[in-house]
Amino acid sequence: xxERNVASFVLSESTHTLILDxxxxxxxxxxxGFTLRTGGQSDAPxxxxxxxxxxxxxxxRVTENRRLLCERINMPFDVWTCADQVHGKNVQQITRHHAGxxxxxxxxxxxxxxxxxxxxHGILLASFYADCVPLYFFDPKSGAIGLAHAGxxxxxxxxxxxxIEAFAKRYDSKAxxxxxxxxxxxxxxxxxxDDRIIDQVKQTALSWMESVTPLASGKYLLDLPKLNxxxxxxxxxxxxxxxxxxxxxxxxxxxxxxxxxxGGKTGRMASFIGWRK
Length: 277
Ligand SMILES: [Zn+2]
Known about the structure:
The protein is α+β, with helices and mostly antiparallel strands and 277 residues long. It has six helices and 16 strands.
């Protein structure tokens, strides 16, 4: 198996994923990663490992892509659990009663939710991306795990803070003990935004300026992964507990789908996390 390190994630060509290797090695039984666009069954513009049922691809191929991933990572497809993502800040606790929600149909997804978390084993949480920021949460003490989908709207709504608060409430997790990972997203190199967005970025974190590079005439480059990192450190997550790929989806369309780079007509990668039973 050919592998290369991408800062805490390992690119696995045999499973067509980035594996969150630092966590998997340290915590046996934990499965966490992010799919590449390669290695699936879908045709252009969804070629080839499209994980999103909501983008107009053939649903049978999407389901097959998800099944294949589960085989490759050795998790049962029946426990794939995902939500209808709406760029909001709502997060939800998942139990065995929800396991399998949305695995092969849109109409039985967890409704209108961008963050999922659980303390139960034998559930695979999944969420979908093409430029937005994938956040992974893990409390080594309780074993609770979670995923949050943070595009610019979710980021400025501080879904990262919602997750940290939900972990505190449900699993008694302390922010200073949480581990967080940030997967591939559109980077500060490529994500150009205007004042409308920057006005909200200013309300998001005290040190928001670290995530913004002004360009000419009311345009800015926004580093969304960095802005999420600032939100989380301001909530008390230690900087050294946050790992990141720093891979830009728009710069690497050989590896990733990019909504912006590909003009909106493209597939979705999946972030995933679960405990093997
Ligand atoms: Zn870039």
